[in-house]
Amino acid sequence: MQTVIEIVAALPEVTEGERFGNLTWSVRRKAFAWDRPFSQADLRRFGDEPPPAGPILAVRVADLAEKEAVLAAGGPAFFTIPHFDGYAAVLIQLDEVDDAALREAVVDAWLACAPASLARDFLNRG
């Protein structure tokens, strides 16, 4: 989780808080990334399959098409669960993702939630 904290610290206007008892990062009150432990219902849906281990981060994506693209290209650390069906977000197994892919996913999540002018300023600053 430390890498996530470092990534979000470099993004403009991020606030850290708690939603549903989980650490959550928002830009202008719009959540873009959050700690997402599995609920008992999630664990039941895995059945006999072991759930992904370690800390899990949920990140927003722009839309459902991007979600499918991220899941197709993101490698085994990127996944979804039935609870997220129809919702523009993916889950990331933090113990399995490399830092570059994590950074890209978190920044893309921030861009998906930031107001257009703030996102444009961020992209143009480099």
How many strands, which pairing sense, and closed or not: the largest β-sheet? 6 strands, antiparallel
Q: Which oligomeric state applies?
A: single chain
From the spread of the alpha carbons, the general shape counts as globular
Q: Note the total helix count.
A: 5
Low-confidence stretches: none
The total strand number stands at 6
Beta-strand percentage range: 15-25%
Instruction: Output mean pLDDT.
Output: 96
What is the helix/strand order? HEEEHEHEEHH
Work out the radius of gyration: 14 Å
Strand order of the largest sheet: 1-2-3-4-6-5
Helix amount, in percent? 25-40%
- Distance between the first and last residues' Cα: 26 Å
Category by helix and strand content: alpha+beta
Task: Please describe the structure with a list of short key phrases separated by commas or semicolons.
alpha+beta, 39% helix, 5 helices, 126 residues, globular, six-stranded antiparallel beta sheet, 24% strand
